[in-house]
Amino acid sequence: MSRRRSKSSSVLHRWSRPAIGAIATLGAINTAYITATRLLGSETACPTEGCAKVLSSPYATVFGQPLALFGLIAYIVMAVFALGPLAINPTEKKQLRIDLENKTWLLLFLGSTAMMLFSFYLMYIMVTKFVVPLGPEAVCIYCIASAFFATAMFVLTLMGRAWDDIGQLLFSGVIVGLITIIATLAVYAPIGQPVAEAYNIESGTGEVFFSVEKESSEAEIELAKHLKSVGANMYGAYWCPHCYDQKKLFGVAALSEMPYVECSPDGKDSQPQVCQDLFTKIEKETGEKAGFPTWDVNGKYLFGSQSLEELAQASGYQGPQDFKQ
């Protein structure tokens, strides 16, 4: 019995580093895809609208950058820690390899501890802020995959070698865990809170997803009024980052004049049936599937965020056009 256990441990210790490296690589691919779609302004492939809401929410952005970008960096670092020492020839540079393995094992443990705890917090956010109010459709497959990868790396790091001082290891883990939790709560504390003197874009329950703080010039205000006067409408969703980009171009004062139809069923003053009827009409007439945002200007359909010059031209606007971009 003890021989079998010893053999199993030996196999686990031998393959733990390659396994951690492989998992970190999968995590890097997962987060690289999300990062690329966010930075390029394209849509992340999601099986449900709820999943898209999670990836477009304020919780998916940190310090003005996609959260996935930081995850990508973390996974790359973990892959380097796991696989780097294996590139050292154990015959020619045995001591160097041993030293690197000893140092990187601790770094792997601390890194996977922080990543796992942060992932657990994100799972809590996903469930409480999205799945509970919206149902199972708000499950984010990319988020679950990342949490699984982080947890798997932690388990393999903990069990993948014979640690000399478990007490010291656990103490280090507790310290890193506390730092991770405190830093996470500090970063996310302002999310969902309205910003004073800003145009706050809210869900139907009043949770703030985005805040437009840019001031409007006379040109943006007059264009917004003109669009309303000619019966133009922007169709979008409160959680849509591209809709947010469009609204930012108008600024705070102009947004109170800009014609807008909320399409998300759980949005504020939403009109989902109006949106559905229009999108069905667009698909029949043009063969194109409308997304957010979509503009209906003088019977012409404009897809995606438009420059204010394009909206002015499409609507026949003749007022001041010194727009603040």
Tell me briefly what this model is.
GO terms for molecular function: oxidoreductase activity; quinone binding. The protein has 325 residues and is of the alpha+beta class.
Describe the protein's architecture and organization.
- The chain has 325 residues and is of the alpha+beta class.
- Mean pLDDT is 91; it is low at 1-5.
- Helix 1 packs antiparallel against helix 3 and helix 4 packs antiparallel against helix 5.
- Strands 6-5-7-8 form a four-stranded mixed sheet, sandwiched between helices.
- It has helices spanning 2-40, 49-56, 67-83, 94-134, 141-159, 166-188, 218-229, 241-250, 252-255, 272-286, 308-315, and strands at residues 61-62, 65-66, 199-202, 208-212, 233-236, 260-262, 294-297, 300-303.
- It contains eleven helices and eight strands.
- The chain folds into two domains: 2-188, Up-down Bundle (de novo design (two linked rop proteins)), CATH 1.20.1440; 213-315, 3-Layer(aba) Sandwich (Glutaredoxin), CATH 3.40.30.10.
